[in-house]
Amino acid sequence: VKEYGKNHVKIYSQSMNEEAIRRQQLESELHKALKRDEFILHYQPQIDVQTDKIIGLEALVRWDHPFRGLMYPGDFITIAEETGLIVPIGKKVLEMACRQCKTWHDQGFTNLRVAVNLSQIQLRQDDFVDTVDRILRAAGLPPTALELEITESIAMHNTEFVLKQLHNLVALGVQISIDDFGTGFSSLSYLSKFPIHRLKIDRSFITNIANRSESAIITSIVGLAHNLNLSVIVEGVETQLQREVLPKLGCTEMQGYLFSKPVPPEVCIPLLKKSTI
Ligand code: C2E
Ligand code: CA
Ligand code: CA
Ligand code: CA
């Protein structure tokens, strides 16, 4: 048992070491990725199910890694946040998303909005509002076409400063949505304090949509949103059953694999044409 214990400790410390090396390597690769422009965006359509039209697209970052292949945010966002690299990466994401949305507007899809995910580290930067303003101007995109997705945890920390930043963003004309709504273990009081436009209902709430208590939760969130004058979009819609039940519970905007996976911008064009905005 003693011997096993020793080995166990050794294996553990060795794997800790490997983990530290892996992270260091990833960090230096992230630096290179920024210089070499290896970050790309895929876009997932958001659909108004009453009209079947695409009303917006969520930008989701990918890392087109030179030898590891296409990497997903789960593989690198945490390290990017811990090293602060999320700030320049997030700026790059905002620039690409705004430019792409402007291109779609110029191609005739003039009502489209683009949604961009924010890390709370970005929102904590003093110059963040200025950065967004400059990016919008450089792209020539109307601020109303940009939606910034924040999570409930952002709302819980640094409340005063975050509140000021959000108000200044909204003053630009930008829209704010709460991502993964209902999963953050936070009180609901921020909903009346923060300048928010939309709630994104997390997909964990719709996995058993035929279930009575689950549909009661959706109905309640929709009622809450309507009373607060907020829009609602449901994320992670995968099945025809969800597609049929959700409108009966008051949901009209949806996003999920049933409609489309996140796809490269050029693949969006046929989707946009089909949806004829
Ligand atoms: P999220 O914002 O909640 O994005 C939704 C995630 O669920 C995406 O994963 C998307 O591909 C996936 N998804 C969409 N529809 C479905 C569906 O019907 N079923 C299932 N099972 N999954 C679906 P992805 O692209 O891997 O992104 C993961 C997370 O990484 C995002 O979660 C977001 O929190 C973060 N992220 C993505 N892009 C950025 C970014 O540019 N900046 C920051 N800070 N975070 C980002
Ligand atoms: Ca999101
Ligand atoms: Ca989400
Ligand atoms: Ca999420």
Describe the structure.
The protein has an eight-stranded mixed β-barrel, surrounded by four helices. The protein is built from eleven helices and nine strands. The N and C termini lie far apart (69 Å). It is 51% helix and 19% strand. The protein has helices at 2-35, 73-82, 86-106, 120-123, 128-139, 152-156, 159-172, 190-193, 212-227, 240-248, 265-275, and strands at 39-48, 53-65, 69-71, 113-117, 146-151, 175-181, 198-201, 231-234, 253-254. It is globular, with a radius of gyration of 21 Å. It is α/β, with parallel strands linked by helices. Bound molecules: ligand C2E and calcium ion (3 copies). The site of ligand C2E has 21 residues, from β2, α2, α3 and β6.
Spell out which ligands are present.
ligand C2E, calcium ion
The count of β-strands is 9
* Helix/strand order: HEEEHHEHHEHHEHEHEHEH
Q: What portion of residues is helical?
A: 40-55%
How far do the termini sit from each other?
Answer: 69 Å
Largest sheet properties: 8 strands, mixed, barrel
Helix vs. strand class: alpha/beta
Using only C-alpha atoms, the radius of gyration works out to: 21 Å
> Strand order across the biggest sheet?
1-2-4-5-6-7-8-9
State mean pLDDT (0 to 100 scale). 92
Please count the helical segments: 11
Question: How much of the sequence is in beta strands?
Answer: 15-25%
Query: Which word captures the global form?
Result: globular
Can you tell me the residue ranges where pLDDT is under 50 for at least 5 consecutive residues?
A: none
